[in-house]
User: What shape does this take?
Amino acid sequence: MIHFAGISIQSEDIVDTLKQEFKLRSVCQRILFQEIVRSAAAEHNLEITPSEIQAKADAMRLEYKLESAAKTFEWLHHQLVNSDDWEDGIRYKLLSQKLADYLFSEDVEKQFAQSRLDFEQANLYRIVVPYAQVAQELYYQIEENEISFFEAAHLYDIDERRRLQCGFDGRLSRWQLPPELAASVFGASARTVVGPIKTEAGYELLWVDEFIEPELSTETYAQIRDRMFQTWLERELQRLEANQTV
Assistant: This one.
């Protein structure tokens, strides 16, 4: 039973709501992932120390601006958890990371070398409009210097966030882009307009301000490791399901 806003909510009602919103399967999957992680960690004698939990808790307090114990307990209460629940959550996250490092740290560098081009990055600007004719006209205007790419994005892009950022879409890796855009982006020269390209979003014009050569940074390491770990979790879950049907 959960108490929320002064009202008691039965566990059955929570399960029913998850079913109605088609979220129960994903929650059950996450529960089994936790069991898989804990079992594998125990098999490999991996443990989380109190100092590791404390360091992570301190980092979270800093992130959420929880300057005092009172604010921390108020935040936990708002999240419907207590300090033990919070500690358990931290322990599981740290255990998952430690297990992922144990299983895949030696393979990350090999994977990076094999798929190096996937991690080439670009500072990408985009303009997305609903009509081909509009996209083509904007292309000609940008090419003839009648309007800058950034001004056109600010005026015409269908996405408010990109309009406010004059078309900036982020520093993106090849694997983060749909194939039809990735080929055009990473086959273009920097600071030239590309397009129009028809996508599900509309008709797109692209502009790469800068290409960034791939390197095995801390962030890239974590991306590769986490993808490999997620694949491993899914395989382990399939193996459990297969054993249940035997």
About this structure: The mean pLDDT is 90. Residues 83-114 form the longest helix (32 residues). Strands lie at 2-4, 7-9, 121-129, 168-173, 193-198, 203-212. DSSP finds ten helices and six strands in the chain.
